[in-house]
């Protein structure tokens, strides 16, 4: 699994102190003859006779003054510079400098292009696999943290996944377009549409089916699996719905680790997970930015997935997002490592259409 990494040194000025020695010349004539004659020749140079020092007192004082003036001028300039770059990145240069202020120093980003994902085309199902799944196997892409499956599925009208079983997985579906019917052994039967998220904690075991009952529209959704940090959980099912307005130009928390969820309850509160994992969703307009705050302490892994607008990645245009210096197109994803919380970083929409993407923030232990 690729390790999904990008210093400031401060110099303490050294102060010098100088002591000025003044020599007084005595103009009184000594009339007493010197009766002692020294006949020994001294070949050792008299250091005190060197009359020109390397740095005079005035030179040292001048250097200290210049240093003090430079520091006094630089501090407000740096503050103004950083403030300007953080608020108005108008050129590629200022944008790059701005990233230095907003990206964790050791953050490493590894891009996973859309075309490198596994692809299953079964006529009724067109599915991209981020991680090894079914007949697609890539030892470099088995899992990432607790994430085990991210499949971007398109199911034709009148078809779907027949009844099958799961155990010991957290399974959720993020509906992009169309309508998906869910039916399970716990008695749940629902039709899920855009904006809805369906969550199943399979626990000790469930059986379910997923169908597209429409006659003329395919359903497009992301199927995501994660490993819980507790085994033998009681099976659980729930759904929640958020509109596009909830996600426009912001990061909306869809799922959250129960240990961090606290007392958040209600129709719009995140779905609780028994895993050190959170998931945010955003629909980011061109030119807009959002800031993700890594709240959890210690090393973290981040994964981003840009959702596709069609079956194929656009050759030109389309949605694009930028993280650090890495640009992702539709269907691309990114492994991010080297982040230690608490920390912050930005995601910017740099394409020519709104970018809908998912951001996962998780612990470093692999599934």
Automatic annotation (TrEMBL):
Give the matching Pfam families: Pirin
Leader peptide range in chain numbering:
none
Residue stretches making up the Pirin N-terminal domain? 119-225
Q: Which residues span the membrane?
A: 59-77
Which intervals of the chain are annotated as region Disordered? Answer: 1-50
What UniProt keywords apply to this chain's record, in alphabetical order?
Answer: Membrane, Transmembrane, Transmembrane helix
Q: Does the keyword Cell inner membrane apply?
A: no
Extent of Low complexity compositional bias: 16-50
Q: Which domain of life is it from?
A: Eukaryota
Q: Does the keyword rRNA processing apply?
A: no
Sequence ranges of Polar residues compositional bias: 1-15
Q: What family is this protein classified in?
A: Belongs to the pirin family.
Q: What is this protein called?
A: RmlC-like cupin
């Amino acid at each position: 699994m690729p390790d999904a990494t990008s210093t400031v040194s401060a110099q303490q000025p050294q102060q010098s102190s100088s002591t000025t020695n003044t020599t007084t010349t005595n103009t009184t004539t000594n009339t007493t003859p010197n009766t002692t004659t020294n006949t020994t020749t001294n070949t050792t140079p008299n250091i005190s006779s060197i009359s020109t020092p390397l740095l005079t007192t005035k030179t040292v004082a001048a250097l200290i003054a210049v240093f003090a003036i430079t520091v006094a001028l630089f501090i407000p300039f740096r503050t103004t510079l950083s403030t300007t770059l953080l608020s108005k990145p108008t050129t590629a240069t200022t944008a790059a400098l701005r990233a230095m202020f907003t990206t964790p120093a050791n953050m490493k980003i590894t891009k996973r292009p859309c075309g490198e994902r596994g692809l299953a085309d079964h006529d009724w199902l067109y599915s991209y696999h981020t991680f090894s799944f079914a007949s697609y196997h890539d030892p470099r892409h088995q899992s990432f943290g607790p994430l085990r499956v991210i499949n971007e599925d398109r199911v034709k009208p009148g078809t779907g996944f027949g009844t099958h079983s799961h155990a010991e997985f957290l399974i959720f579906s993020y509906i992009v377009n169309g309508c998906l019917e869910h039916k399970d052994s716990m008695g749940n039967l629902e039709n899920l549409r855009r904006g809805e998220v369906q969550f199943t904690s399979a626990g000790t075991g469930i059986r379910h089916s997923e169908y597209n009952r429409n006659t003329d529209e395919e359903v497009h959704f992301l199927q995501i699996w994660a490993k819980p940090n507790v085994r033998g959980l009681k099976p659980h099912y729930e759904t929640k719905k958020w509109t596009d307005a909830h996600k426009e130009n912001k990061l909306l928390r869809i799922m959250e680790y129960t240990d961090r969820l606290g007392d958040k309850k209600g129709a719009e509160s995140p779905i609780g997970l028994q895993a050190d994992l959170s998931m945010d969703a955003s629909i980011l307009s061109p030119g807009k930015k959002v800031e993700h705050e890594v709240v959890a302490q210690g090393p973290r892994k981040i994964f981003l997935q840009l959702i596709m607008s069609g079956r194929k990645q656009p050759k030109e245009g389309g949605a694009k997002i930028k993280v650090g210096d890495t640009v992702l197109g539709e269907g691309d994803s990114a492994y991010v490592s080297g982040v230690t919380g608490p920390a912050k970083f930005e995601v910017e929409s740099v394409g020519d259409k709104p970018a809908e993407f998912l951001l996962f923030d998780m612990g470093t232990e692999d599934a």
